[in-house]
Amino acid sequence: MARRPPGLSIAVVGTVATDLVGRAARLAGPDEAATVTELAIAPGGCAGNVAAGLARLGERPTLVSAVGPDFRQTPYGRALRTAGVDLAGLVLSRRPTATSILLTDPRGRQSIYYAPGAMADLRLAVPPRADVAHFAAGELRAYPRLMRGSDLVTFDPGQETFQRPLDEVAACLARADVLFANRFELARLRKGLRLDVRDLLDSGLSVVVETRGKEGSVVHADGARVAVPAVPARAVDPTGAGDAHRSGFLYGLLRDWPLVECAKMGAVTASFAVARVGAQAGLPTERQALARFRQVFGRLPT
């Protein structure tokens, strides 16, 4: 991937949601009930999480999403605006802001239920004019058009890989430069689209970042495959760990760091996120993240 100058503008596109985050004694199967032992309401949605993470790291991202008519006046909307997130790209829908229910069992396995609500109106959004645009999970049918306005496009389909027809994912891959995916999502692409990592890179992607939870991540680019370890942390809640990783990776990308160093920064920011309940409660400041980066990986990239 070609080197780009620092000081770039960034937009984050995708879901903003209210999260109901809980812990369950076990995850219920069909026609079963299970006891929820903890339950909290928290800000969420993949795009909201990444934008919040970038803002905590000192960036000023533009958030492109669709939300309910009163979102700007909610605590979540006010917190994003106060943090420095540009909300001018939001579509105000008559539908309610999306809601996610996320339940985690003692083994760290998670079930997610999602009500899209306002996200159906993301098709009305204006393509962001940014140097870098990150597309998180959301209304994929709107993405190919929205991807046209930015120089560098990063794409993290997340659970949409399993919920959406794969031709919608493929249409986004055709316009993306960087793909983020975990091993299960890559397996789904390999089975459904007959595309492994090498095929994805040959088809036009410059970088594939494969995340592996506690095992860290693998960066595939320029014919090389480099593993990056996870940063040890006392995990309380896995919600939003992937989004926190993306915010750290993008932080490095905006500064022209080598890709492996970007992945290390992603590992750092994810280690903060899992230590608190909810996707955004544990997001680090730039100062905190850089201090942990030095502690774990040594000198910062120059």
Outline:
This protein has 302 residues and is an alpha/beta fold. The chain contains 10 helices and 14 strands. The chain has helices at residues 46-56, 75-83, 143-146, 160-163, 166-173, 183-193, 197-202, 241-254, 259-273, 286-297; strands spanning 10-13, 17-24, 36-44, 62-64, 66-67, 91-92, 98-104, 110-115, 132-135, 152-155, 178-182, 207-211, 217-221, 224-228.
Structure characterization notes:
The protein has 302 residues and is of the alpha/beta class. The protein has one domain (46-94, 124-297): UDP-N-acetylmuramoyl-L-alanine:D-glutamate ligase, CATH 3.40.1190. It is 31% helix and 23% strand. The protein is built from 10 helices and 14 strands. The chain has helices spanning 46-56, 75-83, 143-146, 160-163, 166-173, 183-193, 197-202, 241-254, 259-273, 286-297, and strands at residues 10-13, 17-24, 36-44, 62-64, 66-67, 91-92, 98-104, 110-115, 132-135, 152-155, 178-182, 207-211, 217-221, 224-228. The strands form 3 sheets. An 8-stranded mixed beta sheet has the order 4-1-9-10-11-12-13-14. Strand 5, helix 2 and strand 6 form a beta-alpha-beta unit. The chain is globular. The protein starts with 9 loop residues before the first strand and ends in a 5-residue tail after the last helix.
